[in-house]
Design a protein that fits this description.
- There is one protein chain.
- With 316 residues, this protein is an alpha/beta fold.
- It folds into 2 domains: 131 residues, ATPase, nucleotide binding domain (Nucleotidyltransferase, domain 5), CATH 3.30.420; 173 residues, 2-Layer Sandwich (Nucleotidyltransferase, domain 5), CATH 3.30.420.
- It is built from 11 helices and 13 strands.
- The strands form 3 sheets. It has a 5-stranded mixed β-sheet with strand order 3-2-1-4-8. The protein has a 5-stranded mixed β-sheet with strand order 11-10-9-12-13, with helices on both faces. Strands 5-6-7 form a 3-stranded antiparallel β-sheet.
- Strand 9 and strand 10 form a beta hairpin.
- Helix 5 packs antiparallel against helix 8.
- The longest helix is centred in the C-terminal third of the chain and has 25 residues.
Length: 316
């Protein structure tokens, strides 16, 4: 049997065929062209069926189809409640698919789906709990406990980027102040790097980038390795912010693994994971325990959301 997963992004739709060993065996990608919810429902169904046809898979060989949306869903009713950056409100996705294909349909938040994909592909050892933290424009988090996504009774839970780490801090798009993603996302690191450059005109970061417009999440780390003092301060502060949120998660859930994703996670272990592991342990309740949460790099990259969406039915 196979499972179909679709990852709905802000600009693209990505579909994948996952086999019974949870391996991604085929993919399909197309631009998101949104005119109405009705048209979106048709497109998602068309894409899934085209994926089967292209790979010579019959409909009755598919156990279920899962979809990950950038927003909140009601999986029980098969309805997308609200999405971010796409004008979807209360879209009856399962009903739309069932007009043409009688297959079980499962819905999830895109970050939760990515976490589920990482959970099933972590390694040979059997995990009970994993939290995925993706460092991008914001901070996306997905919580897997006992092999199941934890999204709260209404589907809005697990939004770790909006825990507050600085009381009365920077305004966040969610309406609060001082949210974790305002200080520890990749976007936050870029802002912090630019501020340090403006305050330190002699910093090597100027020569390495050529100007503020070329700054990205790698700039401070690269300059730090070159010995630049201002860059070292930026990285130290950024890791402090990142560790604060990670320690909060560990103190609440004590997961076996926290997987870090996003561009920042590609930094060298000695510059990111090694210092973070020590910093986080110092902040955590239960630091005297024999076992501690492992910090690792996410393995699946952009495929995590597709695989996790496909396996929504497997996880229950």
């Amino acid at each position: 049997m196979y499972y179909v997963g679709i990852d709905i992004g802000g600009t693209n739709l990505k579909a994948g065929l996952v086999d019974e060993h949870y391996q991604l065996v085929a993919t399909k990608k197309m631009p998101l062209q949104f005119t109405s919810m009705e048209q979106m429902g048709e497109t998602l169904t068309d894409m899934a069926l085209a994926l089967l046809e292209e790979n010579h898979i019959a409909r009755d060989q598919v156990a279920s189809i899962g979809m990950g949306f950038p927003g909140s869903v009601d999986n029980r009713r098969g309805v997308v409640i609200k999405t971010v950056n796409i004008p979807i409100r209360f879209m009856p996705v399962a009903e739309m698919v069932h007009r043409r294909w009688d297959v079980p349909v499962y819905l999830g938040n895109d970050a939760d789906c990515a976490a589920l994909g990482e959970y099933y592909h972590y390694g040979d050892e059997k995990l009970e709990s994993l939290i995925l933290v993706t460092l991008g424009t914001g901070i996306g988090t997905g919580i897997i406990l006992d092999g199941k996504i934890q999204a709260g009774f209404n589907g809005f839970g697990g939004e770790g980027g909006h825990i507050v780490i600085v009381h009365g801090g920077e305004p966040c798009t969610c309406g609060r102040k001082g949210c974790w993603e305002r200080y520890a996302s990749a976007s936050a690191l870029v802002r912090q790097t630019k501020a340090a450059m403006e305050a330190n005109p002699g910093s090597a970061m100027w020569q390495m980038t050529g100007g503020l417009e070329q700054v990205d999440g790698r700039t401070a780390f690269a300059a730090m390795r070159a010995g630049d003092a201002a860059a070292k301060a930026v990285v130290k502060q950024y890791l402090d912010y990142l560790a604060e949120g990670l320690a909060n998660f560990i103190n609440i859930f004590q997961p076996e693994v926290i997987a870090l994703g996003g561009g920042v996670s590609h930094e060298r272990d000695e510059d990111l994971l090694v210092p973070l592991q020590s910093m986080v342990l110092d902040m955590c309740f239960g630091r005297e325990a024999e076992r501690h949460t492992k910090l690792v790099k996410a393995k699946l990259g952009n495929d995590a959301g597709i695989i996790g969406a496909a396996l929504l039915g497997v996880s229950g």
